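== Fold encoding ==
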Amino acid sequence: MEGGGVRRGDPQTHTQAVTRRRLAALRAFLNRAYAEYDARWIEPDPVQFVWRYERREDREVAGLVASSLAYGTVKQIKRSVESVLSTLGPRPARALDSLDAHQALHSLEGFKHRFNDAVDVACLLIFIREIRRSAGSIENFFAPEGNVADLRAALTEFVARTLALPRDFLYGRGSLPQGAGVRFFFPSPRDGSACKRLCLFLRWMVRADSVDPGGWTRVPRSALLIPLDAHIINIGRKAKLTRRVSPGWKMSEDITATLRACDPDDPVKYDFALHRIGLFKREADLLSLRSA
């Protein structure tokens, strides 16, 4: 075709058509998976601990505790989260407001979750106490200026301000040591971390459907990033949802960008379904879309 048009059989036209076809197939597959993997599949996901509470303040506390410990085996995670939340009783937010380090350490005596111990979790609880004292809620502390436009900047600032909070002299006096185990709960995008557990916490707090409790209003769903766990990394690579090889913040952005092409307003709604597909080793249909 003359006059600046694209000729029949032009490679660029073919590539665009294949891309559109693959995107349409991917969107259809993901939407079916999202519809299938609903609340019936929550067990054994740690989001079940958030649903235990009716008050938003208690869901925030339970969510940050559960997501912080969401590493290791499912059995380990459930046992550890249950152990910590049981020390806070039926109203964890209210219990935290009057908690001190001595009480926390006593109630968590003997606690061990892989490489985190009672001191680390006690410090996590004291940090949450200080977050609530200073801002009234975790959401207010995370987004003090109102609506979040840049998740990377918001997470970076959240982590930096949290690690600078009073901690009742846990880990000694002075600044928080670089080797303090509580730092593991608060990685920063500034260091290239995918911040998997914090992104998981944000998904639980921001989205609202049969899986995610929601409740937050200051972070738009469109700004969320997918929590980059082993299943998502594996599926992302094999199904060509990302061009990245190394896990980290950039890979999480890349996979989320692919999902955003399927649903611009709520890209991370597919996370739970993709995780279940990986967990139950049902990737075959998704992987077939690579050549669509």
Observations:
- Residues 19-171+182-291 form one domain.
- The chain has one domain: 19-171+182-291.
- The radius of gyration is 21 Å.
